[in-house]
Amino acid sequence: MTGSSFNADDLAQFKQTFFDECAELLADLEERLAAMQEETADSEALNAIFRAVHSIKAGAGAFGFTQLVQFAHRFEALLDRMRDGLVEQSERVADILVRAGDILACLVEASQSEQDLGENYGSEVCDEIDLLLAEIDGLESVLTSDEGNSVDTVVSEGPQEDQKNTVCTFLIEFAPKAELFRHANEPLFLIRELQGLGQVETECSLERLPALGSMEPEDAYLSWNLTLTTDKPEEDVREVFEFVEDDCDLKISAVQPEDVTHGSLSFHILDDVPETGDEDKSPGESDAEVLVAAKPATEPAAVVANVPVNAQKTSAAAPKAKATATPAQSTGVSSIRVDLDRVDRLVNVVGELVIAQSMQAQETEDRQGGHDFLINQANEDMSRIVREIQECVMAIRMQPVKSVFSRMPRLVREVSSKLNKQVRLLTEGEQTEVDKTVIEELADPLTHMIRNAIDHGIESPEEREGAGKKAAGAIKLLARHAGGNIIIQVIDNGSGINKDALLKKAISKGIVAEDAKLSDEEIEELIFAPGFSTAQAVTDVSGRGVGMDVVRRNINKLGGRISVQSVQGKGTCFTLTIPLSLAVLDGMLVAIGSEKYILPLASIVESFRPLDEQLRALAGGGEVVSMRGEYIRLIRAHHLFNVPGAVTDPCQGLVVVTETANGGKVGLLVDELIGQQQVVIKSIQENFDPVLGVSGATILGNGRVALILDIEQLKSMPVSADTWKPSSPEQSEASPANGDEAQIIAPEKMTDTEGMQVPATV
Amino acid sequence: MNDHVESPEQEEISGEPSSAQNGNFHQFISFKVGNEEFAIDIMAVREIKGWTETAPLPNQPDYNLGVLNLRGTIVPTFDLGCRFGMGRTETTPYHVFIIATVQERTIGLLVDAVSDILTVNDDQIRPVPDMERMTAAEFLSGIITVEESMVVLLSLEKLFHTGDLANAAEIAA
Known about the structure:
The complex is a heterodimer of chains A (about 750) and B (about 170). Chain A has about 750 residues and is an alpha+beta fold. Chain A folds into 5 domains: about 5-155, Four Helix Bundle (Hemerythrin (Met), subunit A); about 170-320, no CATH class; about 340-400; about 400-580, Heat Shock Protein 90, CATH 3.30.565.10; about 585-755, SH3 Domains (SH3 type barrels). Chain A is built from 23 helices and 22 strands. Chain A has a 6-stranded mixed β-sheet with strand order 14-18-19-17-16-15. A 5-stranded mixed β-sheet of chain A has the order 6-8-9-11-10. Chain A has a 5-stranded mixed β-sheet with strand order 20-12-13-22-21. In chain A, strand 15 and strand 16 form a beta hairpin. In chain A, about 35% of the residues are buried. Chain B is about 15% helix and about 40% strand. Chain B is built from 4 helices and 10 strands. Chain B has helices at about 10-15, 80-85, 155-160, 165-170, and strands spanning about 25-35, 35-40, 45-50, 65-70, 75-80, 95-100, 105-110, 115-120, 140-145, 150-155. In chain B, the strands form 2 sheets. In chain B, strands 8-1-2-10-9 form a 5-stranded mixed β-sheet. Chain B is globular and about 45 Å long. Residues about 1-20 and about 160-173 of chain B have low confidence and may be disordered. The interface of A and B includes residues 699, 704 and 760 of A.
């Protein structure tokens, strides 16, 4: 593991792998520690925590992150005592563990970014651990204290602490499974390693050995009973088996030295194992030093006569049996690590496959008029399979939101302790899956919202008690699927949004006119206005005014929406609705003139053909259409986009009512709705500048490109596209009717249009 | 429909035709726009694709023909003739898109026909004479004479520089 034989690149790569692994381990650790705060962890959970810390320690040791190793070692020592049941799982311990987990995470980060956190970073927690350990060790003199300078050495060797050289005897029952060999481990090496720790007596048990004829050459039949006399702590003994733990049945028990005499040893072991043949034990033979192929005398009667030969062979053959085990026994590796780029490539290629397939289907249908049953059948099958492949590929990218949610407890602890508030975080539905890219984009908004919830939402303990609430506030983070969306809610039981204060502030900031009458929802919406913060004072946690508007923008970027409900004094609930994947969109294909566009289906409320009396051009520009008494702004897409040949009379076309991010509605005039279809989103910006009013493009079944409309941008576009004149006057593509109407709806914000109409490129 | 022609650069470049001779040789692809012959650096050319329908982008200059589907990638296309002030090209199925890479972006250039691959020594490239008040000259990087006729070298970088305009668009959005 030393870097000497590798060049720097390799080392950097290994380091990266280490940090990747650390991130996963830390997430797991965090989650398990959080669970421990709720309920007592069972031994499996403790083991998992221990393994996580230990793996980090081992890796850190290899790369020489001394501070990290030292801390991890301390942490590990505590966990080990817990595993042994020497430490009660009290609130205090849980608290220390959680804090230790945080520090460990910080140290890993620091190691990664090569920061120096200072010599004494985390020393408080270290001291507490030491104190705790000292208390235990005071009770249990058998166990050595783990003070110290132990950690400079590479970890897998086991720390060479200065110990009270208590000689201890361990009885180890070691029964490898076939997987052990499959994972390229070797019992002999393990036993040799044990010998490095002290004196080992081995006894090989052949009880599971079948007759030669029925023997599976790559299975594992042998097990060993080992007696180790060593001055090292049990921890070291366990460490030998660290990497095979899951692939074998392992029992390690410590025996007080006086309990064991060499002579009675094999009795002792065999008595513990009921299945072993009970009559013929020969005490003498446990003296053997190395791997002992058992003698016929020790065999249970069931084994056939040729066993001794057999046994010799298998014990020699077992190490070779690495390659494959019998399928029945191999549970195998359940997950693999794949570079995200590869998955992305696969997603892209499959996207193309979908398009190519539908093109082919359409083409063959056009050519033979849909009469050839076999071809139609084949096309249908093909289409089904391709869709299935696409679903599978998309599923690869799906991940539980857990990876984001699990970062939050730490955040809550940090922020709440900084603000002297008591906050409990509850999470629900963390197994809900969503596309990886969505997950990445979720972290920031969620962090922001939780910070906000603690800072602005949850009151101080005194205030809470004054209001008759529990001193500790609660924040609930909830995720679930709903249709093609994931819904994430951040709910706090804090003070809620103070609507009066909000409105006052909005008025003072000039966001809202003084005499405006706003509904409660509209007032709540104000928190998404740019430059808004209701915190009484700017704290270092939040309140700088870059707040919910950024969150909303991030969520909108994901094609999602955010809304807020609040009851003053009771709490606030933010609801995020985000599409499961960024790559696929449910769209409505609409025709505008000669062009076809995709409207995101999620934003469409309804569509209708208005009557003449429902339309009204407003003075000062703008048009409205009334729908059941509601006045909705009418947007003429053909105007904005300068599309020739479009229906210009709304009474002849269709008004598609769409919902905008802030819950408002706009009506988009289109010629007709063609149909609903799922489209693969392609970026325009990859090869071109952003185009106003268009969020992306997709490829239709016939191979042509259709643009995906961006309602938000359409809404803010200057009403007439005529403000930008085509460079060559004779090429005026606009339909004749456009000119007149452009006059009726004069741009509201002419001054803004200059910048927006920058022709992209050239 | 997708009968694109593989870029000739494979055979030409891998054979290193110019390395045997002295001096710095460059290869260009020459093509016709209207009655004039232009050429661009062969290294920028990804492939040559037969004409396909494009989807117009809104509010773009006339010479922007919209985007096409290049095996799943959205590629913006430009009418070079229109860019050079010859008016919009009346496209026919015989027109050709040269798919090129400019500053890591893939673009399509509509031309009338691809003519030849030119291997040119650096000293054969004559500078474009200074022309006053002719801003278009910025994207002309040189002139070469091939068989008595004049071929104008284009600098795609200058023709399609993206930085400042992208910034402007961002500010606007």
